[in-house]
Write a sequence for this structure.
C-alpha cells in the first residue's frame, strides 16, 4: 500500500477494487488491487494552419493558435481521463497521449471552421473578424465538451493567400489605395474646413475683441467714476478724520492745560497750607517760648515773693516771739516783784 500525492497542476486517477468507475483526487492511499495514474490540467498551445474555401469558392489559408486544456471540474476531468489520457501505471500523460489529444482537437477545429467558412463570404470573414472568431470558438467548444476540454484562448491571425492566389494581396493593395485616396480627400476637406473654421474664428475673434473693447471702455468709465467717487469720499473722510483729530488734540490740550492749572492750583494751595502750617508752628513755638518765659518769670517772681514773704513772716514771728518773751519776762518780773 502506497500513499500518493499529485502536483499542483495535476490529479490522481484511481481505479480498481472498491471503486465503481474511477476516482479523481489530489491524494490517496493506493491498495495493491488498485491502479493509479496522473493527469495534468496544464493547457497547451495548439497551432494550426487551415486551408478553407468561402462561399465564393475562394481558397485561403487561416493560421490560428488555440490554448486548450482539461477543464478543472470533476465531470470534465472524468471524461478526459477515460477518453484521452492514454497512460499506463504511474506514468503521466506521455507525448503520444498528448499527440492523440492534438489530433482530435485538430480534426474538430478543421471541421467546425470549414463549416463556418463555407457559409460566409470573404468580405464578411475579412471585416467581421471578431464575429468569425466567436463563432469558431463557440462551435469548437461545443464539440470539445464531450472530451472534457476547454478553450482558454484563441488567436485567429491574418487571412493569407494560398499558392497561386493574390486575392488578399490585391484586396490589401485596393484598401491601401482607397485609404490613400480617401486620406487625400479627407486632407482636402480638412484643409477646407480648417480655412473656413479659421475665417470663422478670425471673424468671431474680431467681434469678440470689439465687444470686449466696448465692454472694457464701459468698465473703465465706470471704474473711473467709481474711483472719483471713492477719492471724493476718501477726501471727505480724511477731512473729517483730520478735523476729528484736531478737535481731539485741542480738547486734549485744553484738558491738559486745565489739568495743569488744577495741579498748579493744588500745588499753590498745598504750598499755602504748608506755609500756614509752618507759620502756625513758628508762632506756636514763639508763643510757647514766651509762655514758658513768662512762666519762668512768674515762677521767679513767685519764688522771690515767696522768699520775701517767708522772710517777712519769719521776721514777724521773731518779732512776735520777742514781744512774747518780753511780755513773759515783764510778767515774770512783775510777779517776782510782787
Amino acid at each position: 500500500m502506497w500513499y500518493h500525492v499529485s502536483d499542483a497542476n495535476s490529479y490522481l486517477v484511481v481505479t480498481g477494487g472498491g471503486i465503481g468507475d474511477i476516482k479523481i483526487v489530489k491524494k490517496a492511499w493506493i491498495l495493491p488491487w488498485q491502479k493509479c495514474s496522473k493527469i495534468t490540467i496544464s493547457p497547451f498551445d495548439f497551432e494550426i494552419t487551415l486551408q478553407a474555401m468561402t462561399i465564393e469558392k475562394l481558397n485561403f489559408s487561416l493560421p490560428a493558435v488555440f490554448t486548450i486544456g482539461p477543464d478543472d471540474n470533476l465531470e470534465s476531468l472524468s471524461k478526459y481521463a477515460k477518453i484521452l489520457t492514454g497512460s499506463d501505471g504511474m506514468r503521466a500523460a506521455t507525448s503520444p497521449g498528448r499527440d492523440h489529444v492534438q489530433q482530435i482537437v485538430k480534426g474538430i477545429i478543421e471541421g467546425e471552421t470549414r463549416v463556418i467558412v463555407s457559409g460566409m463570404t470573404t468580405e464578411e470573414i475579412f471585416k467581421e473578424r471578431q464575429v468569425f472568431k466567436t463563432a469558431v470558438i463557440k462551435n469548437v467548444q461545443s464539440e470539445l465538451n464531450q472530451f472534457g476540454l476547454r478553450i482558454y484562448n484563441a488567436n485567429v491571425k491574418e487571412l493569407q493567400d494560398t499558392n497561386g492566389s493574390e486575392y488578399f494581396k490585391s484586396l490589401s493593395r485596393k484598401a491601401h489605395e482607397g485609404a490613400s485616396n480617401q486620406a487625400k480627400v479627407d486632407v482636402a476637406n480638412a484643409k477646407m474646413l480648417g480655412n473656413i473654421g479659421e475665417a470663422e474664428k478670425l471673424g468671431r475673434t474680431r467681434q469678440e475683441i470689439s465687444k470686449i473693447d466696448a465692454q472694457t471702455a464701459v468698465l473703465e468709465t465706470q471704474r473711473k467714476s467709481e474711483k472719483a467717487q471713492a477719492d471724493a469720499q476718501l477726501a471727505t473722510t480724511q477731512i473729517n478724520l483730520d478735523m476729528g483729530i484736531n478737535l481731539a488734540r485741542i480738547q486734549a490740550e485744553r484738558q491738559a492745560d486745565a489739568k495743569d492749572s488744577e495741579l498748579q492750583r493744588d500745588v499753590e494751595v498745598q504750598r499755602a497750607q504748608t506755609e500756614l502750617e509752618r507759620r502756625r508752628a513758628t508762632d506756636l513755638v514763639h508763643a510757647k517760648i514766651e509762655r514758658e518765659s513768662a512762666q519762668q518769670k512768674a515762677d521767679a517772681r513767685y519764688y522771690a515773693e515767696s522768699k520775701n514773704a517767708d522772710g517777712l513772716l519769719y521776721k514777724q514771728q521773731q518779732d512776735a516771739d520777742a514781744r512774747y518773751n518780753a511780755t513773759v519776762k515783764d510778767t515774770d518780773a512783775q510777779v517776782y516783784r510782787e
